[in-house]
Amino acid sequence: MTIAPALPPSLAAGTATVPRPGLRSPRPGAVMAILLPLLFLVPALLLPLASVLSKAVQDRAGSYVGLANLTEYLSSPHLAQSLSNSLTLSGLSAGISVALAFLYAYGLTRTRVPGRGFFALVAQLPLLAPSLLPGISLVYLFGNQGWLKGWLGGHSIYGSIGIVMGEVFWTFPHAVMILTAALSLADARLYEAARALKAGPWRRFLTVTLPGVRAGLVSAFVAVFAMVITDFGVPKVIGGNTPLLATDIYKQVIGQQNFQRGAIVALLLLLPALIAFLVDRAMAAKPAAMMGGKAVALVPDRQPWLDRLFFLFCALMAVCLLAIPSTALFASLAKLWPYNLTPGLWHYRFEMMDGGGWDAYANSVRLSALVALFGTLLIFPAAWLVAKGRAPRLLRQVPHALALLPLAVPGLVLGLGYVFFLADPGNPLRVLNGTLTLLVVCTIAHYYSVPHLSAITALRRLSPELEEAGRSLKVPALLTLWRVTLPMALPVVLDMAAYLFMSAMTTVSAVVFLYTPDTMLASLSVLAMDDAGDTAPAAAMAMLIFFTGAALRAAWALMTRGLLRRARRWQTAPAGV
Amino acid sequence: MRHWFRPLPALALLIGLAVPVAGAQERTPITVYTALEADQLKAYKAAFEAAHPAVEIRWVRDSNGVITARLLAEKAAPNADVVMGVATTSLMLMDREGMLEGYAPKELASVKPAMRDARPDPHWIGMDIWASALCVNKPEREKRHLPLPRSWADLTDPAWAGQITMPHPASSGTGFLMVSAWLQMMGEEKGWAFMDALHRNIATYTHSGSKPCKAAATGEFALGLSFEYRANKLIEDGAPLELVLPAEGLGWDMESIALVKGTAHEAAARTLIDWAVTKDANAQYAKNFAIVARPEVSTSLPHVPADLEKRLIKQDFAWAAANRDRILAEWSRRYDAKSEPK
Fold first, then answer.
1. Which residue, among B15, B44, B137, B220, would best test binding to A if mutated, counting the most A CBs under 10 Å from its CB?
2. Which of residues 46-65 of B touch A (CB under 8 A)?
3. Which of A331, A365, A380 is the last residue in one of the domains?
4. For residue A106, what are the CA distances in angstroms to A95, A103, A123, A204, A221?
5. Which overall architecture, per CATH, does domain B131-249+316-338 show?
6. Calpha distance A242→A79 (Å, rounded)
7. What's the pLDDT tens digit per position in A49-90?
């Protein structure tokens, strides 16, 4: 649940460096403005994380015990099992997800498969629902009463098989996004040269295509690996008897209220996510050498057999991707699966269920709207200060580095950090405990990085001459931002808001430790209802989230289409995204 | 040149959504920690608030074990004003930690003496009794040509392997009362040996006490160890279930209510305890449970045998409360690798 829609490497590539400031020396106020984003990022991100660290070295009474918690946990046989399960299943899921996504993305970018637009759209479906949805659908498909139970050859869906299947579904769009971006950057001249040297199709694939997307493959693998190892939605529903690190934290904190032990597991979970993040940054920092200024875009030739083969593959994948939400929808409409399949809306009446029902849904919509609004209002100007501000480069790196930090922090760890941070009686922010505001702040911090990166990328596309012109006309910088920069970047700003909205609708991991009965969310109520055994209402709520996301996506597409067309007239460089 | 104002209506809409609904609140809210079933909460709250309009219940619900862990973890600064519908075993545990305040509600005299703390100002008062029961899916059982189990011992038949689910005793009160009853009925050694044998047939240990019965209702797992309220309710709703009360005797516990020491809303909290022993309140419990605290309130659950009370084992609450931590640690050591996450 951390490295959410990863940016294509091409976009992320340039962001490790920050552009030079303007030439004339700025006023001190303009320099100090760079510290404004820190007013949010330090209390909402840095301090909670620091309190996880400090909690890990305390006993239950709060006195310092050094590494005693860690050694105690490391010596339990349970841990070795959880750790090895987590590593194996994350590796396996990432391998399968990236392999399938590579073929799918190859079909979309390098062949002339009909219906590529449709296939690209279908690949986005898993983004619309929390990771609990694939778990629930897989129970209906392959569980003991599942239609396709026979396909598993007597094996149970509860456990490794279910976890891997669910995680592959849930991470597929992220892998496809990264690999589509990587595969669409290709210089046709290289292929011509290879052909001229009499290289066959296989040789061209191995010596031109693969090296070109190596960075994309690595970054897709680490992104998916980090998502899986920190996800607990899928294993919570379908994990059966398989202990994992992510579910251990939850079990320790919620089930046994053992916060110190939870903090230790959180630290262990932080490690693989941090490594994945560093590898990804290292790959992104390398310039994309393939595409020089003289590159010629590759237009795939018609290859009847290959096209047919890839069409079959993409169609098969699309069927699988559609099967998951369709199954949940069907099950949520059946009166008593599998004995009475009379369709109706029984399971959409949540009053008699755990999880808060329609109030939780209303809370979720409200949370998502607030996160989209305030998140965008915060992240865009902060990114502007980083990309276009007049502070020295080194100073601007500070908020930039903090803004990227959430990519490496699992939601469960961040949420736990909030619990510890706000439990301190001396903390004036304690008043936020139990409020929706707290969930808004936490969710913005959790999903800060991706919109920040999109904003930086978009702002860097705009020529610095605009600001220079504004300055020489003695127009205040803020006015230039409002009158010129913001309108030009508007499509990206709207995308940021849409991303934040969707993320807030589906978030489970960070907020699971923070909600109260008054601030129950739809995604959490899916979890609560599944826990209580009300699988069909859980499927119903997951589908509500799914359809809300789909409706929003459609509305957004209509809204931004006109804007995008107009914005393009303005921009110096063609807008690619 | 003003076209970038176009999204403003959308922005206004977002702000509109964002403005919280300000409701006039003059009633005293009390926070009530509970393990009552979600489908019971609404009726109890409505009935209480109709009788006492000045007080508003705010439920914090989770399964019994989780609520117990939470209450104990918050010992230094309790959030709860009242604990309602939580197992007596758990409340006795809290009482040992000095977390409960004694209070004798107005109609205390009409509560069955066996269903309350014996002190003149009881630290806990029982509301109703819930007992373990088996939920068996008839079509699935017949498909596999399995006989209907009659006893706990029947559950260790290898023919049921992978078809049984049971609530986790650490998170679920229903799970704990079964384990505690087996140990009291059979003695420690035979009790653990029985659980070892049962464990071989268990597909998964669930978080909630209702889930095994709900899973049996859909046939996902053919047999669930659960409790009589959920079985009765699901059969009412048309699930193809058979309810079995094992012959050796049933584990049980009382859903009880208690006042938390140091509450800031003591007066309002007391009105809830006053209400909880009234005839009205008992009539509400009677819709869900066969045995309630006031003897004159009659109950009848259509699918639960009338002689339920006679089938209950002799329960030693003091022993169960005193040994809860030890039993759970031993249980976890033996079987935890197979429990559902959480």
1. B220
2. 58-61, 63, 65
3. A331
4. 16, 5, 13, 14, 16
5. 3-Layer(aba) Sandwich (3.40)
6. 12
7. 999 888 888 877 778 888 888 888 877 777 778 889 999 999
Angstrom CA distances, B261 to B82, B269, B271, stand at 9, 11, 15
* pLDDT at A16 exceeding the cut of 60: no
DSSP code at position A287? -
A81-129 confidence digits (pLDDT tens): 888 999 999 999 999 999 999 999 999 999 999 999 999 999 999 999 9
Q: Do B69 and A143 touch (CB under 8 A)?
A: no
H-helix or E-strand spanning residue A146: none
Task: Give the mean pLDDT of chain A.
Answer: 86
Say yes or no for a CB contact (<8 Å) between A257 and B210.
no
- Cβ-based contacts of B39 with chain A (< 8 Å): 352-353
Q: In the prediction, which pLDDT does A4 show?
A: 41
Q: Is B12 exposed, middle or buried (0-12, 13-18, 19+ CB in 10 A)?
A: exposed
Counting one residue from chain A and one from chain B, the pairs whose CB atoms sit within 8 A come to 132
The reply to whether residue A336 touches residue B217, judged by beta carbons under 8 angstroms, is: yes
Task: Report pLDDT digits (tens) over B70-82.
Answer: 898 888 888 899 9
Q: Which residues lie below 8 Å from residue A316, measured CB to CB, with a gap of 6+?
A: none
For B:187-246, CB contacts with A below 8 A are 203-204, 206-208, 210-215, 217-221, 237-240
- Cα gap A326→B108, rounded to integer Å: 55
How far B121 CA lies from chain A's nearest CA (Å)?
A: 31
Q: CA nearest B18: which of A436, A505, A494? A: A436
B28-129+252-304 topology per CATH: D-Maltodextrin-Binding Protein; domain 2 (3.40.190)
What pLDDT does B25 receive?
A: 52
Closest approach of A262 to chain B, Cα-based (Å)? 12
CATH 3.40.190.10 domain span(s) along chain B:
28-129+252-304, 131-249+316-338
Tell me, yes or no, if B23 comes closer than 8 A to chain A by beta carbon.
no
Q: pTM value?
A: 0.86
CATH classification of the domain holding A454:
1.10.3720.10
User: Looking at the domain assignment, is residue A33 inside a domain?
Assistant: no
Contact yes or no for A386/A399 (Cβ under 8 A): yes
Q: Is B279 helix (H, G, I), strand (E, B) or coil?
A: helix
Q: Is the pLDDT of residue B289 over 60?
A: yes
Residues of B in contact with A250 (CB under 8 A): 341-342
**Domain encompassing residue A311:** 54-331
Considering only alpha carbons, which residue of chain A is nearest residue B60? A517
Which residues does chain A have within 8 Å of residue B341's beta carbon, measured at their own beta carbons?
A: 232, 235-236, 239, 243-244, 247, 250-251
The separation between CA B118 and the C-alpha centre of its own chain, rounded to angstroms, equals 23
Number of domains in chain A: 2
Residues in chain A within 8 Å Cβ distance of B4: 486-487, 490
**Contact call for residues B210 and A531 (beta carbons, < 8 A):** no
- Nearest chain B residue to A486 by CA distance is B4
**B30 φ/ψ angles, rounded to the nearest 5 degrees:** -120, 140
How far is Cα B91 from Cα B179, in angstroms, rounded to an integer? 18
